[in-house]
Amino acid sequence: MLFLWMACTEPPPPAPVVVAQAPAPAKKAHTPKYTQAELAESADAFTLSGILKCSQSKEGPWTVAVWPFHPEFYGPDPQELPWHSPLVAIELEKAGNFELKVPSGEKRLVLAYKDDGQQQAFADPDGAYLQVQSEVSELVVDCAHSPSWPNGIAPVTEQGKAKPVRQALDPAADADWLYTTPSGRRNDGSELRGFEDRRDGYERRFKKDPNSGDIAASLALMPEEAAEEAARNMERR
Questions:
Q1: CB–CB of 142/167 below 8 Å?
Q2: Lowest-confidence pick of 25-34, 39-48, 61-70, 226-235
Q3: Distance (Å, rounded) from C-alpha 21 to C-alpha 9?
Q4: Any long-range contacts for 197-200 (C-beta under 8 Å, 24+ apart)?
Q5: pLDDT-derived band of residue 195, with 50, 70 and 90 as boundaries?
Q6: Which of 38, 40, 48, 94 is the most buried (most CB within 10 A)?
Q7: Which residue did the predictor score with more confidence, 190 or 120?
Q8: How many CB atoms lie under 10 A from the CB of residue 93?
Q9: Residue 91: which of 108, 68, 114 has the closest Cα?
């Protein structure tokens, strides 16, 4: 009986310790510094335009954003967005044409992303910063680029001295983009290869002009006779 009494009075085993799980960190909000409405009439902001290409993941929503230089940002990460806030950003329903206003500056990183940065697209194979001192067109932001900066040193594309992050157009993929411009619609019968040849010829002709890329593209979209007359007038300036 004494043995049974002692067995019945033993304390119950301790309850298992439940360790509370730490809450998942909140996703960082990449709120742009400026809205497009705020820059619409600014004399210190210029339009960047081009096409976002991503054959593997065309459907959006995509965000096209432009980041400023930061001395402690050491380069793109294929899975993670820059930790500092972008200057501007716009939303796209799917990959395609885009246009946005950007404050002028010597170092602007153009980066498109979706799924909070799990899919990224850059305007340059090296992820280079772009100088923005005037309008910049024909940007090709491509998710095929996976850039890295050796030793964290950022490359810079100098507007006017290097082609402003432009790639050869793919007739199958990009013909629709070319002909959505007002000048392009007037030349629906033009061969894309002919356009590229004229553009490259005018770019060589005006290579000393800081805006040679934009000049060449504009002239190549014009009827040849009118373009040649405009080119001669520019050379007489």
A1: yes
A2: 25-34
A3: 35
A4: 198/224, 198/227
A5: confident
A6: 48
A7: 120
A8: 9
A9: 114
